[in-house]
Design brief:
The protein is of the alpha/beta class. Helix content is about 45%, strand content about 20%. Helix 1 packs across helix 8.
Length: about 400
């Protein structure tokens, strides 16, 4: 198979669009006017080529997704105080409650705290390109246009990121077990344990400042990915497939726990299940030397379609692109592909960076997430993979 290449003019167009959107709109935290303006601008980019393009509104509870962090800090400080006053039941209750919230809110992405945070408007943008003949299946290309809050731990002493985060959770676990010990052995080691837990309070307290209020420019995470999807939509409007409908989706509120993808999946569930639907979601296209297709999502709790990832890997080989298949690392979060996988869509996410607790792109979730730090080659490879995969699928339809 001949290798496909992204035309230079289209690649330049993607970067020009990205620079204009960031310069004119700036950071786009979900639930803000800036993110809504980004959705409106993306609709305008899609309108000239799409058969239909819509902005679908939903509500996001701004700040709820990371709300467990400060609850953890408060619970730990109160729990340590209760430990000193020989109130183990209080400490045990506080630690169990904080861990319960952490597990549901962050490990499983259950919207446990959303009701306690303000509801604000958000919008997904969806463009559709119909095939030349009858529709037999659908391919979705997606990214997200909201940008993340700055993670202060990745700005200051990023080498200590894992120790600061997992260490804080470890202290919570230690306080829980220490309180259980105190319950059965009230006179053994209370003072020594209390000193350890008090030192731990200083360590856990820093989590209060884990994320700042301001948002990043969000070039690589994840405006570049959305614009690759937009470019694929433009390509397939000019080179329509025979039986494959192409959908381009830019989600809002990915950084708020995939709330945009969840709203989209809930609204379109029956349509997505009515025929075979495949999704290639793009994320963090910083590095053309590190490429990964996910086989699981949301901290490993959601299975993605491994066969789809393998098919795409084979397509990549024909184009001279090397891609690894990996499950998402535990405690690293999730991607929009997970929400569609939950309703039966065959989905995977293509990453362009190392994705682990100990290593990420140096600009990830910082103010250095600007167009200059997005790989032009990674953009080209993402476009090529989407183009060739969709064309191959359509060619094999009968």
């Amino acid at each position: 198979m001949a290798k496909q290449t992204l035309p230079r003019a289209m690649r330049q167009k993607i970067f020009a669009q990205m620079k204009v959107l960031i310069a004119e709109i700036g950071p786009r935290r979900a639930g803000t006017a800036a993110s809504l303006e980004a959705a409106k601008r993306l609709e305008a980019l899609m309108a000239p080529y799409a058969d239909t393009v819509v902005r679908e509104p939903f509500k996001v509870h701004s700040g709820a997704f990371l709300g467990w962090i400060r609850l953890l800090v408060i619970a730990y400080v109160l729990g340590t105080t209760a430990f000193w006053f020989n109130m183990p039941y209080v400490t045990i209750g506080l630690m169990l409650a904080s861990l319960f919230i952490l597990i549901l809110q962050f490990i499983f992405y259950v919207p446990l705290l959303d009701r306690f945070y303000p509801r604000r408007p958000a919008e997904n943008v969806i463009a559709t390109i119909e095939p030349k003949q009858s529709v037999k299946e659908t391919v979705i290309f997606s990214g997200h246009h909201d940008s993340a809050r700055v993670f202060n731990f990745l700005v200051h002493q990023p080498a200590l990121y894992q120790a600061r985060v997992t260490g804080s959770i470890a202290f919570v676990m230690l306080l829980l077990f220490g309180s259980i010990w105190q319950l059965f052995q009230p006179e053994l080691g209370q003072q020594h344990l209390g000193i350890v837990f008090s030192v731990g309070a200083v360590w856990v307290a820093q989590m209060w400042f884990f994320a700042g209020k301001r948002a990043t420019p969000g070039a690589g995470d994840n405006l570049a990915s959305t614009l690759v999807a937009v470019a694929l939509g433009e390509y397939f409007s000019e080179n329509r497939l025979q039986h494959t409908r192409v959908m381009i989706v830019s989600f809002d509120a990915e950084e708020e726990g995939l709330r945009g993808a969840r709203a989209f999946a809930a609204r379109h569930r029956l349509d997505l299940q009515a025929q075979p639907t495949y999704m290639l979601n793009f994320e963090c296209l910083y590095d053309d030397k590190v490429r990964t297709l996910l086989t699981s999502d949301i901290n490993g709790t959601v299975k993605l379609d491994q066969r789809l990832a393998q098919d795409m890997q084979r397509v990549a080989v024909t184009q001279g692109i090397s891609i690894d298949l990996k499950p998402i690392a535990f405690l690293t979060g999730g991607t929009d592909a997970a929400e569609l996988a939950k309703v039966g869509v065959s989905a995977t996410t293509l990453f362009g960076m190392v994705w682990s607790n100990s290593s990420r792109a140096s600009v990830y979730h910082t103010m250095q997430d600007v167009p200059e730090n997005v790989s032009k080659k990674a953009i080209e490879q993402a476009f090529t993979l989407g183009q060739v995969y969709a064309e191959n699928r359509d060619r094999n339809l009968k």
